[in-house]
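Sequence of Prolamin-like domain-containing protein (Castilleja foliolosa).
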Amino acid sequence: MPNKLIEEIEMIHPLLKCAEHVVHNRKFPKSCCSKLIDTGPDCHVELVEGENHFFKDNKKGHEQKRITVRGDELWNKCEKLVPPSEDKDYPRLPERRYRPNYREFLEGCARKVTEKCAKEVVYSIFEKRKEVDKKCCMRLVNMGKECHDALVEALDNLGKYEKKRKEVKENSGRVWKHCEEIVKN
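Predicted 3D structure, token representation.
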């Protein structure tokens, strides 16, 4: 029986050669799209996030955002050229909270909003106080849903609100939707 990890590494290796096309802004060949899609969505996201770590020190995170956007655009383009197989068992990553550097991820998320904004969001979710204002909503949406959900879960796990988990999840969703609507307008 072949080792699944070895198979995954062998599958990724040719994709690394394809990355040169992205780095040098060359056309991404269809053969590379096939390799990208074969890795699966989780692996693609992890590869893009791995690239972002090289640009941690960028003050405003513009390079990180550019890499993420280009990664998403590339995935979408390749998905149209080479639709993924519905019956394929793609390698799955563990939930983010079980991966290395989770604490760094949370700290990075927290740095994307001001303390005042964070308090607004927390009070709105956990204490059902006033709605989050437009400026804070812009920061929250810019931070991203993954960060929002991870921070809410981390706060929820502190225990103070343990009995209200379902309510916290609903309120968190309400705040996120409220902010998305405000930012759209």
